[in-house]
Design a protein that fits this description.
Elements: E1 12-16, E2 20-26, E3 29-37, H1 41-54, E4 60-66, E5 76-79, H2 89-97, E6 104-111, H3 118-135, E7 139-143, E8 145-152, H4 157-163, E9 170-176, E10 180-187, H5 191-201, E11 207-210
Helix pairs in contact: 2-3
Length: about 210
């Protein structure tokens, strides 16, 4: 994770790139853990509903989610879905909070096999199922991006475009008149350095504004 913005939130952090699933049998009960990305609470709820619809005949579909940076508790949720209180959703959430992954949701589907696991056994089974799914999870990066409007003279166009890669920036729109106007999209963390580069390339005559 990189440093945070004015809100204290990091400007980039690891998130799921795709779904991951584990499937194991513990004392004759089958535990299927599905983990995936949830960038909003609505996304998390939709993810949970989709897994529940996939396994409508399951004994339990317990779930947890963390929306936001890894370990952040401002937008979290969990449910034991009929299991004894505190034996499913809470251990699942604890694993997600300690995983180093943000914007993540997990559903553990249980098919009861006739053998009671007890409270400790359930906690270990649900938490362990999420860990197992996380072990196979491919990650990508969530990057907070913004757009800037840039006005420069023609001599600065090529040098600026050559410099875009240093800032992970792309020109998404351009207008060419007496001066050149570009709309630049880039990670928020690079904005200050990008402004300094425009000033240096144009001897201070370039303009950079928030889009």
């Amino acid at each position: 994770m990189t440093k945070g913005d004015a809100t204290g939130l990091p400007e980039r952090y690891p998130v799921p790139a795709e779904k991951s699933r584990s499937d194991e049998t513990i004392d004759r009960s089958r535990f299927i853990a599905t983990v995936g990305r949830a960038g909003t609470v609505e996304n998390a709820r939709a993810f949970i509903a989709a897994v529940r619809d996939e396994f409508p005949d399951a004994t339990h579909n317990c779930w947890a989610y963390v929306v936001g940076p890894p370990g952040d508790t401002r937008q979290i949720g969990m449910s034991d879905a009929g299991e004894p209180s505190g034996t499913a959703g809470r251990p699942m959430l604890d694993v997600l909070l300690g995983s180093g992954v943000g914007d993540v949701a997990a559903v553990v589907t249980r098919y009861y096999g006739g053998v009671k696991l007890g409270r400790g056994g359930l906690v270990r089974a649900y938490g362990g199922s999420v860990r197992l799914a996380l072990d196979g999870l491919r990650l990508t990066e969530r990057v907070e991006r913004t757009e800037l409007l840039v006005e420069i003279g023609y001599p600065a166009v090529s040098p600026l475009k050559n410099a875009l890669g240093r800032f992970e920036a792309v020109a998404v729109e351009g207008a060419y008149g007496s001066r050149v106007n570009l709309r630049i999209r880039l990670p928020r963390e690079h904005v200050d350095a990008f402004r300094e580069t425009v000033a240096a390339l144009t001897d201070g005559k370039g303009r950079v504004e928030d889009a």
